[in-house]
Amino acid sequence: MKAMNRRKLITVSAVLAAVSLAVTAVPAQAAEVGVSSSEIKLGMTLPMTGTASLGYNKIPGAAKAYFDYLNANGGINGRKVTLVVKDDRYVPTEAVAKTNELILKDKVMALLAPLGTANNKAVAASVNPARRGIPVLFVNTGFSGFADTKKYPTTYTVLPSYIMEAKIMGQYIKDNFAGKKIGLLYQDDDFGIDALAGFKTAGVNFAVKVPYASGSQSAAAAAGWITKFKAAEADVVILFGVSSATSAMLGVAAQLKYAPQWMLGSVGGDATTIKLTGVPAGVLYNAIGFSPVPATTDMKDEYVKLFSDIYAKAVPGSPFDLNVLLGMNTAFMTAQALKAAGPNPTRKSLMAAIDSKGATFANSALVPAAYSQTSHVGLTGYWVGKYSPTGDLAPVGGTYVTYTTDSGAGAVVKSTYVRPAMPAKGLPN
Amino acid sequence: MHKKQSRDIVLFILGGVVLYFLSGVVDELRVYQGATIAVYVIAISSIILLTGYSGQVSLGHGALMAVGAYAAAVAHIELKLPIILCFVIAVLASAVGGALLGAAAARLSGPYLAGTTLALAIGLPSLANQFGVLGGEQGLLFDVGFPPLSLGEEFTQYKWFFWIAGLAALISMWAIKNILGSRYGRTWRAIRGNDVAAQLCGINIARSKILAFTISAGIAGLAGALLSMTIGTVSPSAFPLALSFSLLTGAVLSGITTLAGAMIGAVVLVAIPEIADVVAHRIGSSERVTTNLPGFLVSALLIVTVLFVPNGPVEQHRARKAKHLASQK
Amino acid sequence: MDLLNTFLIGITAGTIYALMAISMVLVWRSTRVVNFAQAGMALLSTYFGYEAVTRLESFWIALPVAMIGGALVAALVEMILIRLLVKHSTSGPIAGVAPIIATLGLLGVIRSISAMIWGGQDLRIVGPVSNDGFTINATTLVFSPLKLLILVTVLVLMLILSVIFQKTNIGLALRASAYAPEIARLSGIKVDWVRTLGWALAGATGAVAGMFQTVNGNGTLSPDSIEFSLLLVSGFIAAVIGGLDSLIGAVIGGLVLGLMISFVLMYVSSGLFFIAPFVILLTILFIRPQGVFGAKAARRA
Q1: Chain A partners of B260 at a C-beta cutoff of 8 Å?
Q2: Number of independent structural domains in chain C
Q3: Which of B48, B302, B121, B239 is nearest to C101 (CA)?
Q4: Using CA atoms, how far apart are residues C150 and C214, in angstroms rounded to an integer?
Q5: Across the interface, do B37 and A17 touch by the CB < 8 Å criterion?
Q6: What is the pLDDT of residue A23?
Q7: C18-60 pLDDT, tens per residue?
Q8: Residue after which a domain boundary falls, among A291, A308, A326
């Protein structure tokens, strides 16, 4: 009796599973997935909640603010650009699940600025946008590996790689801190491996290197890091980690009155985010920082002016910071790519547009982009600045000194790049 | 006995055939979810075996899944073993881990065991950061490769995942069913019922508890390796505490002693985020509510089930029916 | 100097773990339940405290607000969840694990509700005094006025609790209500009320642990911060080291754990943040399965 019931149960369960699987029918295919006569649909995954979301959760708001502005001004050839955002809490499993939803349920045309090295790798391996021919535009990570067009043929980077950043830092150290003892805090994964590779190419010898595991950064851990830097008598300490690591370090350093010459990597260098965690602005004063886009306080810059105006109207009360500027800049580049993809954009024509015209897309960055038929590398350099007494990164003496390089053995050179003027009203032309 | 077993086999094969045709007609998202359901079925049945039958509680099965997943990935990357062997290694590695944990567990009871396994669930995945070969926070790629070309051009990756996971689920359910019906299964039930009496009957309690932990861990390891297959990577963050909790919820929902109910728990776990999505859209809630609704529903469902249907809906139904039959006589 | 720093960090963290452990012991004593939601309740109370701090701008008002909030939540949980649990899930294979599962569910519910109300982002609670280290002979210590304050406050709280337990019958009533409710009832103890009181005391104690854990860390509060995961694990482990049943044991368990974690982080590796407590727990359970201060019988659930 019991056994029979059990068997019946299995059958019932199987039927239950069948029903749950079969509830959605297969929809009809449009001309291109995610493109209708009135709309172009894009999808983004990033941490919107949880500890890792700090600062980055402003990116969708920023991108949407630009797209709304674009849509109010005619969109892309009459089509509205909509952005579907999914929270992955910085967990690869979630990133895969949410990306699947974006592709299979929301049916987006392309993925836009998905965040995180590990998450992008997981998505590439499991969802495999490349095999499906889905563009992954402007990934929000500086891991140099994503520019590998053989491994990730539909992925386009935008941020300068961590290798480029480390090489430029190395050049700056040679020029300004020769003979000083240098310390490095880095994350011991691809993020850090990239950095170490860059520093090696630049020929920087460290007095002390302190790795930390992603997720282990805390006030207690930071006290330990400081002990190591102190023991090695480092004059310059480079913080090449995420925001929470930079914040923990600077916060504890303030408590311990430990003040070497700080040098902050761009990933963890957004002043607004650092100050939000309670780090006094004064600690940042005179720290050296790096950014590919203009200072967020530089209202003389036409892009900063326009973007901050749009953002202030769209998201009142939210400070305009580096994450917002980068988010809007990415949206702006996306708009140009879509425009360049022809009257009826497809996934193929979108990627072809970036390959052929990407290097000439107008955007706020002060360094050139390196897109071409054979390269999916985005921005290629940084300007070097110092943090002001109020904790904002600004160019020394008011002029931007920019450097460019590549992710290989190429030299670091002072850039002669002149940014093209912004298209009228900041709309793609 | 033989007749019954062969009937079981026929049934499982039939189940396989149903799943096979199913994977052909539904869209890709459902196929992917189907693969996830199969993984959950395996993981939940490992908990049912441990908690429902041997009476030991584990909040650390997420960690054991991680052991299996890492073992499979390392075997695939470092030793370049074929994928089927990687799954076998996953089972063996996590079974060894389970035996060690079981040896500790046999000395502990109730809340002590729960707390120890809880600490394990939180602690163990972060250990990956200590060893370079495990790839740190970013983890390792675990790519089982494309489906064989002989299955046709149109055969998608997810269908391939679904086949592998579905087959593994059928095999492991069949194996567990047989183990539970064997001498060991009866021994565990005896211990759970009354350990003193079981001991008097000459049962070595510690040894059979450790055995239960070992087998359960091996199955969990298989589930872990399969989970990593569907995500494409193995990383510490793929095995959060929430995963261990979800599995426990799934097991309780299934009925902690109802192996066949594992399907119910697995379907509910996969359905909850979708249901939450629909609810959130219906009430037009904010981002905060939307992202936290699934977690809330899982936990709330867990409490409600423990309070009102403590032994699971199936067992409850069966008990009511038995009562009904008894009153008719 | 490192040695001293490590020691001071460990002691401060340890006193907070001790508080958490005490609240678990109080619950265990009153209802024989290990409350895995204790850290979740502490989190919720800390959010109450956060609301009070931002509105009234005084940590010293916020602390009692958090304590009262914590006590109320705990009392409600006992009256609704635990009483139902005792009534419903006493038979069948689930009986042994039902309280564990129910409190875990509660942990999940509290976490997601907190995240729905306050969002997943970090909120800040500024401590009442500076967290800048004391300077002795031109070297700055990690030890700060804030840490000193935490130490003193926790010691005072522990004194108050031990006075309550020694000078009144509450301790005895708690124990009697848990072990032999029928007999306790016969001897005139209002068993239900005593159990609720045990939970309320635990809730208030946990609230203090939550508030201090937050300001002692980097001052940020979020539903899945490291600080609260640590509190969840450490509170339990400290209580187990102490034997689950002993207040003194909980205090010593907390201090031992705080010191050990601090030394491991400083001298071994900062990546062992979560694995260290687990190793400590296993070691202790292998040496003395009933905890250092537990009676042999206390091990049975």
Answers
A1: 6, 9-10, 13
A2: 1
A3: B302
A4: 11
A5: yes
A6: 44
A7: 999 999 999 988 888 889 899 999 999 999 999 999 998 889 9
A8: A291
- Length of chain A in terms of residues written: 429
Measured from the Cβ of residue C41, the count of other Cβ atoms closer than 10 Å reads 28
Least confident of A198-212, A391-405, B124-138, C115-129: B124-138
Which H or E element spans position A42?
strand A39-46
> What is the Cα Rg of chain C in Å?
19
Residue-wise burial string across C227-250, b where 16 or more C-beta atoms lie within 10 A, e elsewhere: bbbbbbbbbbbbbbbbbbbbbebb
Q: Are A99 and A127 in contact (CB under 8 A)?
A: yes
Closest by CA to B193, choosing from B329, B52, B19, is B52
Give the C-alpha distances (Å, rounded to integers) separating A112 from A16, A128, A138, C160, C195: 36, 15, 6, 58, 55
Note whether C133 contacts A255, CB cutoff 8 Å.
yes
**8 Å CB contact of C9 and A223:** yes
Asked if pLDDT for residue A2 goes beyond 60, the answer is: no
Number of folded domains that form chain A: 2
Interface contact B111-C300, CB threshold 8 A: no
C258: helix, coil or strand? helix
Task: Please give the single-letter amino acid code of residue C295.
Answer: A
- Would you kindly state where each structural domain of chain B is located, as residue ranges? 2-240
**Which residue, among A395, A384, A380, A386, has the nearest Cα to A300 in the 3D structure?**
A395
The residue among A241, A260, A291 that closes a domain is A291
A285 and A318 part of one domain: no
Residue B173 contacts residue A14 (beta carbons within 8 Å): no
SS3 category, A321:
coil
Predicted TM-score of the model (pTM): 0.81
CATH number at residue A149: 3.40.50.2300
Closest CA to C121 of A319, A273, A315, B290: A273
Q: Is 70 exceeded by the pLDDT of residue C4?
A: yes
Residue A48 resides in a domain: yes
The answer as to whether A99 is a domain residue is yes
pLDDT, tens only, B279-316:
887 877 677 787 788 888 888 988 988 888 877 777 77
Tell whether A315 lies on the interface with C, counting CB pairs under 8 A.
no
Domain holding C243, by residue range, is 2-299
* Integer Cα distance of C46 and C111 in angstroms: 12
Same domain for A141 and A246?
A: no
pLDDT beyond 80 at A7? no
Q: Is residue A199 part of a domain?
A: yes
A237 secondary structure, DSSP code? E
Round to whole Å and give the CA distance between C121 and A91: 16
Give phi and psi for A159, each to the nearest 5: -70, 145
For residue range C67-123, list pLDDT tens digits in order: 999 999 999 999 999 888 877 756 666 667 788 888 989 998 998 899 889 876 778
ipTM of model: 0.84
Chain B, 127 to 186: residues with Cβ < 8 Å from chain C are 127, 129-130
- Distance, in Å, from the CA atom of A371 to the CA atom of A382, rounded to the nearest integer, reads 17
State whether residue B228 sits within 8 Å of chain C by CB: no
List CB contacts (< 8 A) between A217 and chain B: none
Q: Where are the alpha helices (DSSP H) in chain C?
A: 2-31, 38-56, 59-77, 83-88, 98-118, 145-167, 170-179, 181-186, 191-216, 226-241, 247-267, 275-287
Contact C109 B249 (CB under 8 A): no
From B68's Cα to the closest Cα of chain A, the distance in A is 16
**For A227-245, how does the pLDDT look when each residue is reduced to its tens digit (9 = 90+)?**
889 989 999 999 999 888 8
The reply to whether A142 and A256 lie within a common domain is no
- As given in the structure block, the two tokens for residue B322 are 């038995």
The answer to whether the Cβ–Cβ distance between C2 and A219 falls below 8 Å is no
Length of chain C counted residue by residue: 301
Q: CB-based contact (8 Å) between A282 and chain C?
A: no
Range of the domain at A131: 39-160+296-379
Q: Could C237 and B119 be called an inter-chain contact, meaning their C-beta atoms sit closer than 8 Å? A: yes
